[in-house]
Amino acid sequence: MSLRPPPAPDQPPIPSQTPSQIQGRDALELWKHVLTDLVRSDRPELTTRQLALYLTVYLVQGEHTVRGLATTLALQKPVISRALDRLGQLGFIRRERDRLDGRNVLIRRTVKGAVFLSEFADSIVAAQNNGPK
């Protein structure tokens, strides 16, 4: 499964496959199945905070900085920095000094990070297709 970038803010959302309606307990069963698949795999485990940050970096277009991510996620900058440290150790993101303003450090995506998210997205789709257990 490939990850598509979101549309520009002034454009309508990109249409995708119509998801089936999932509610309440079924949503929890789906999420349990996805998480169980993740912890049984050899893929690294991420905290909820790390995963939210990681998805933000990959799915939200534009340049990302610690300050911007802290604002977007309503978290303090040290919390963002610690999560980025872990994602960097895993090779899922990298930090790069901004060439236009050397004071800023930009958060960049990596191929390894994109592959992990693609596999994670596939496991969500598989869980949805297999239905609650």
Number of helices: 5
Helix/strand/pairing category: mainly alpha
Give the helices and strands as they follow along the chain: HHHHEEH
Helix content: 40-55%
Distance between the termini: 23 Å
Biggest sheet details: 2 strands, antiparallel
Summary?
The protein has helices at 24-40, 48-59, 66-73, 77-89, 111-130, and strands spanning 93-97, 105-109.
Tell me what you see in this structure:
With 133 residues, the chain is mainly alpha-helical. The protein contains five helices and two strands; from the N terminus they run H-H-H-H-E-E-H. It has a two-stranded antiparallel sheet. Strand 1 and strand 2 form a beta hairpin. The longest helix has 20 residues, at 111-130.
Could you give the topology of this structure?
Blueprint: H1 24-40, H2 48-59, H3 66-73, H4 77-89, E1 93-97, E2 105-109, H5 111-130
Helix pairs in contact: 1-5, 2-4, 3-4
Give the key terms.
53% helix; mainly alpha
